[in-house]
Amino acid sequence: MQAAATHAPPDSADELGEPVPKVPNSPSSAFACLSLDDDDDYDDGDCNDSSQRPTGTSQHMGGNASKAAEVASATRLVEALDAARKRPKPLIRSTGHRVQGPRDEQHHLLSWKTSEFAYRKSSTTGSDLPTLARGLFTERLLTRDGSVQHRVAVRGYDKFFNLAEMPWTRPEAIRAYTVPPYILTFKENGCIIFIAALSDHQLVVTSKHSTGALDGVAVTHAQKGEEWLDVHLARAAKTREQLARELWQRNETAVFELCDDSFEEHVLEYPAEKSGLHLHGLNANSATFRTRPMDEVDAFAREWGFIPTRYIEVASLAELHELTDRIGMSGSWEGEPIEGFVIRTRMPSTDPAGQSSGGASTEAESSSAGSTRAPVSPPYAPGQTWFYKVKFDEPYLMYRDWRELTRKMLSQKAAWEKTVHARGGGGSGANTIPGATGPATVDEPISSPAEPATTEATSSAAADADADADTGEAKVSKSQLKREKKKLEREKREAEAKQRAAAIQAGIAPPEPPQARSKRPETLIFIQWCYDRLYGANGVKARPDLFATFGEGKGIIALRNTFLDYLKAAEGQQKLAALGGGGGDGSNGAAVEAAAAEDTRPFTKTLITPIAVPGCGKTVLAVALSELFGFAHVQSDDFKGKKGFLASVDKELQAHDVVFADKNNHLFQQRDELIELMQKRSDPNQVVKPPSKKKKGKGGGEDEASAAPPAIPRIRTVAVAWQLDALPLNALHRICSDRILARGDNHQTLRADTTGAAGTRDHETFDETIWLGVDEGLEASLRRIVKGLCPMLGLPMPDDARIEAALAKAVEYKPAVKRETKSEKKSAGGAGDKDAVEGTGGAEAEAGAVAKAGSGGGGGVKVRYYGIAVELDLHAVLGKLFDEGQSSDASSEAIASGREFFHQLRQEKRITLRPHITLVHSAAVAKEQESQSITNPEAAETKDAPAKQAEDVAGATARWERYADLCRPSNDVVEFDMVLDRLIWDGRVMALSVRDVSSASVPDFEAVQGGRGGQGQGRWRPHVTVGTAAQDIRPVEANRALMEAEDGKQGVFQIPIGQGGTGVRAKGRLQGMNH
């Protein structure tokens, strides 16, 4: 065994040099802060001393043409970064670092940090975002002629995104813009560390944006990386100087993941033998992203004593999807939980024909072409390597949720304790608060509503009513009494909630537990478990020791493991069972999933599960498949409750090999119920009772032949999923409602409510997934499903004639069961009993409008206004405007202001999902009728209804009646064309102005509405509200902003949109609306 080399302590300046305090972003040139000296010109003063001059000029500036080209490219990049950082509200900032070398030379580095949201705002690089590099340090070089140039000293990866997170990581883009092989590197759960050479004898170790010590931080990530560097080099009997020479000659940065739970815990646990620096990349120090193949990275790690990063190579996308879907079921590899994979691929050598490159087309253009959106190209050159990632929900994301929820509870507790101290309440409250209802004594009384009637009193009243009923004196029905009891209980809960809210606001009671985005049973139990141990509860003592080091990044895993032990115990199992969970190890029944993953039996049954909204065509496709192959078809609308539907699916699977579970299944809970049922029925370890013995005839005597228990099937689950997010919401509504109308009465219940659609989750536990487009025809969808199912099930492919015949029969299908909706029952004089329509399980709730929303006919949702539902993807249109700068007439100040406000709206989810143009509002009708009913003709123009509103009020009743008539179910739908020409905003509201509104169905529209919308096109000035800055800002403010923009008011911006500022054409449909 070779002796380990001896090294100086990590904090010495022996080889890495001693960094000095950083110089942050300054208003002057970024180049000035590179010197970190009083004089920022290296050619003057002390900088003429070679010891003060930046090094590296000769080695990286020689006559080699490729090196010279690299330096020229890096210099252009730094110039672009410097220009970007000097913008009024820069997306990029810089920090200077001076690193002292072992031979008295100094290296002046500049680290570049980009705001996280900036990576998402653009699908290409440009003046605002010159590079996608995440972790970039540059060094200033001097040449013999005195000119300043730059080199890339440390280079991280380009920012990469989750599958489907960006337009160019959506499945259709992955198919178009990747080539095999696909390299899946295991995503280690730590922090990034870069190691590069500043010369042929000196290394620099950095984190993403920093190096060396930081004020107020005991040990930085970079310093911990240095410590581990020595450990690994010692194991390989290597020195820092040797590694510096190797990386200098390569001109590369070694990219590591630092995993050390003794230093900083993350989400996943790392034992001592896996702690250290995991090498996962060797990147060229160049402006453009280039990285070594993984086999070379693996060999380098082994040679230099680092931990190699695990990776898998697959030859096709199909193999990639199969692997990630299978591992995603449990979120583990060989029993070890993993965060996910980084998938390394390459661009094709030529751009796929007909695909967009570098940006998404506007939705209006997409709609007008009558086709789906073209795949968007990643911002890379042909043949260039690029990455995307796949993260697993279980258990990684759940564990991460637990960590963030704990941090939130600790923050809330600290704020509450501060309030208690300010009120003179004394200690922390963890030991003085016996439960979640506040201290036993309080300093200030709080007002509370009158105590409502108690449940006991209600129960007593019920008993008295029953007694009276026996004597024939009852005046109140039992159902009435039940309703009254529920009402009293609700009032009591509301009163208690108000009282508690007041106590929390006053600092008397601790804050409520946080609401989790995930409704998983384990997460809900975890929140209450932590809350009880933070504040104490009945029978639970406060445990501050569990959280003592959480804020320092320590104790995260210990806390989680303590909870998982609790979850496995009897009490935890009872709570899990009460919430419908299972497999109390905190991994969504990971034991069951692990058993399923190890199940090598062939599939014997198949369940087909659509994921859709009403109108996608799932029932037509189910009937066609049944006609083609004899599949069983279970339709949820045949049942009043979910139990009946699930029981029927279960029963049909016993009699058939393939069952189509015809339900929207657009809610996660619905899919989980089906998956759990299939897992339960497929479990090879379940105990199956043999069939019961039967008696022979009247003579008695039992059949002694013991029947064998039935074989346990292995059930394949196949999702047929419609891409619901591929179209604007209004376009989705139009397509689906048209299909529902085309079916007429051939449906148990007609609804078109998509507000509850939850989409799909990555890596759901389906064995296979077949994707369909909402806007493709039924025949195309049927062929796609048949093409996916036949090889899977070993079925012969039917010919065109059989497919067409099956589809024709399916289109004519009439359900065996017909049920009335609530509105139908009400119109027929029925009571509309709540229980009579619960068969939809909430997925097709009666709260949704009938297919032709807001028709103005009987039943349905009350119409608040009539408008045009505009088929427009605001994210795509405005993203393209700001990312590509389409508007050449706009000033840079206006573009910067609009971009900032748009990003704010997008980040805070304030952009409307249903863009529309209001034609007439019920409030205007009411005002007009009010003004006509009083003697003062100017009453309609109050201070709340200025002149502009008064114009809108005039003729409102006539317009309302006209549009209500056009929206009647007996009439054809009314479609509109329009042009969106300008974007207006003022910091409170953002809107699009509209012109050239017309409809072939309403030839007198201009006379009815008072214009066509644009300036000079009449008094009607419509708009589409993009979003408002806050909940309390009403969208109607867009009217004001539009008028002020046209009047040239200061502080209100407007810019033309569309190619060359000519506007964007869009389509829309007349609808009665209530949202």
From TrEMBL:
Q: Which Pfam families match?
A: RNA_lig_T4_1, tRNA_lig_CPD, tRNA_lig_kinase
Domain tRNA ligase kinase: from-to ranges:
607-683
- Top-level division of the source organism's lineage: Eukaryota
Region feature (Disordered): 1-69, 347-378, 421-520, 679-710, 818-840, 927-953
| Domain tRNA ligase phosphodiesterase positions | 791-1049
Where is composition skewed (Polar residues) in this entry? 50-61
Biased composition range(s): Basic and acidic residues: 486-499, 818-837, 940-951
Q: Where is the T4 RNA ligase 1-like N-terminal domain?
A: 133-397
The UniProt regions of compositional bias labelled Low complexity, in chain numbering, are: 353-372, 447-464, 500-509
GO-annotated cellular components = nucleus
Instruction: Please give the Gene Ontology molecular function terms for this protein.
Output: ATP binding; RNA ligase (ATP) activity
Task: Output compositional bias ranges, type Acidic residues.
Answer: 36-47
GO terms for biological process?
Answer: tRNA splicing, via endonucleolytic cleavage and ligation
Q: What is this protein called?
A: tRNA ligase
Name the species this protein comes from: Pseudozyma flocculosa PF-1
